[in-house]
C-alpha cells in the first residue's frame, strides 16, 4: 500500500522567510504529486501539482520533485501570516494518497 | 453558491444509530469521493465513484456504505455508528483538468461525533 510521509510540525518561520515543507513517498513508480493547503476547520484547497523531476514555480510557491530520492517539497517564499495552515502532500496514482500534513506557523 | 455542498455540517449521534451524510455538486464532474480526516492521519479514502453505475471501496470502507443517486449526488451511510467513526468527513469531486491530471475539489466537510 502506498504511503506518504510528512513531518507533522509545527514548522515555525518568521514573516518574510522561506518555508520549506517536505514529503516522502513509498511507491517508486509514482509520477504525480499535489500540494494542498488546509486552514483550520476548512477543506483542503489545491496549491499546485508537479509530475516532472525538478522545480515548478507558481507565484511565491515552488514545488520540487526528486524521483530518485522519492522526495517532494514545497517552498513558500516571503512567507506571510496568512500562509499559516496545514499543508498536505498527495501522491496521485489510481487515487490520491494523502500524507498527514505539516502544520506551518508564520510568525509576524 | 458553493460548487460542492455537504449536509449536515455538524452531527452528533449515538452508538448504533444509522446516519447518512449527503454530498451534492454543481460542477458537472463524474468522479466523486468520500474521505475521513482524523488528527495526525491525514485524509483517508472511504469510497469513490467514477460514474452513477460505478462504486469502489477505498482504503477504509468497513462500516460504511454509499449511494450514487445521480451524477450530482453521492451519499455516505454509517449503518451502525461507533465512536471511532468520530471524524471530519469530506466529499470531493474531480475532473481531468490541469494538464490531463485529475484535480480534486473538496466540500466544506461534515464534523461527526458518535457518543
Oligomer: heterodimer
Rg over CA atoms of chain A: 13 Å
> How does the overall form of chain B come out from the CA principal axes?
globular
Helix/strand order of chain B: EEEEEEEEEEE
Number of helices of chain A: 0
Number of beta strands of chain A: 11
Global morphology of chain A: globular
Please specify the SSE layout and strand pairing.
The complex is a heterodimer of chains A (108) and B (115).
Chain A (H helix, E strand, L loop, with lengths): L3 E2 L5 E4 L4 E7 L6 E7 L6 E6 L3 E5 L2 E6 L4 E6 L8 E8 L3 E3 L3 E6 L1
Parallel strand pairs in A: 2-11
Antiparallel strand pairs in A: 1-3, 3-8, 4-5, 4-9, 6-7, 7-8, 9-10, 9-11
Chain B lengths: L3 E4 L2 E4 L5 E7 L5 E8 L3 E10 L2 E4 L6 E7 L2 E6 L8 E10 L5 E5 L3 E5 L1
Parallel strand pairs in B: 2-11
Antiparallel strand pairs in B: 1-3, 3-8, 4-5, 4-9, 5-6, 7-8, 9-10, 9-11
Outline:
Chain A is mostly beta strands and 108 residues long. Chain A has strands at residues 4-5, 11-14, 19-25, 32-38, 45-50, 54-58, 61-66, 71-76, 85-92, 96-98, 102-107.
Describe this structure in words.
Chain A has 108 residues and is an all-beta fold. Chain A is built from no helices and eleven strands. Chain A has strands at 4-5, 11-14, 19-25, 32-38, 45-50, 54-58, 61-66, 71-76, 85-92, 96-98, 102-107. In chain A, the strands form two sheets. In chain A, strands 2, 4, 5, 9, 10 and 11 form a six-stranded mixed sheet that branches. Chain A has a five-stranded antiparallel sheet with strand order 1-3-8-7-6, with no helix packed on it. Chain A starts with a strand and ends with a strand. With 115 residues, chain B is mainly beta. In chain B, strand 7 (64-70) and strand 8 (73-78) form a beta hairpin. At the A-B interface, strand 5 and strand 10 of A face strand 5 and strand 10 of B.
Amino acid at each position: 500500500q502506498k504511503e506518504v510521509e510528512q513531518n507533522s510540525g509545527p514548522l515555525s518561520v518568521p514573516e518574510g522567510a522561506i518555508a520549506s515543507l517536505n514529503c516522502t513517498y513509498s511507491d517508486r513508480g509514482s509520477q504525480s504529486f499535489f500540494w494542498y493547503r488546509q486552514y483550520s476547520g476548512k477543506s483542503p484547497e489545491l496549491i499546485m501539482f508537479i509530475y516532472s523531476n525538478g522545480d515548478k514555480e507558481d507565484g511565491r510557491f515552488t514545488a520540487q520533485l526528486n524521483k530518485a530520492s522519492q522526495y517532494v517539497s514545497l517552498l513558500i517564499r516571503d512567507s506571510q501570516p496568512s500562509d499559516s495552515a496545514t499543508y498536505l502532500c498527495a501522491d496521485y496514482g489510481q487515487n490520491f494518497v494523502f500524507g498527514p500534513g505539516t502544520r506551518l506557523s508564520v510568525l509576524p | 453558491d458553493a460548487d460542492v455542498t455537504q449536509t449536515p455540517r455538524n452531527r452528533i449521534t449515538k452508538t448504533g444509530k444509522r446516519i447518512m451524510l449527503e454530498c451534492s455538486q454543481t460542477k458537472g464532474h463524474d468522479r466523486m469521493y468520500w474521505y475521513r480526516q482524523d488528527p495526525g492521519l491525514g485524509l483517508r479514502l472511504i469510497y469513490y465513484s467514477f460514474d452513477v453505475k460505478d462504486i469502489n471501496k477505498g482504503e477504509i470502507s468497513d462500516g460504511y456504505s454509499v449511494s450514487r443517486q445521480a451524477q450530482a449526488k453521492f451519499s455516505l451511510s454509517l449503518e451502525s455508528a461507533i465512536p471511532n467513526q468520530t471524524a471530519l468527513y469530506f466529499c470531493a469531486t474531480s475532473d481531468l483538468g490541469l494538464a490531463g491530471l485529475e484535480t480534486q475539489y473538496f466540500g466544506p466537510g461534515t464534523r461527526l461525533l458518535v457518543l
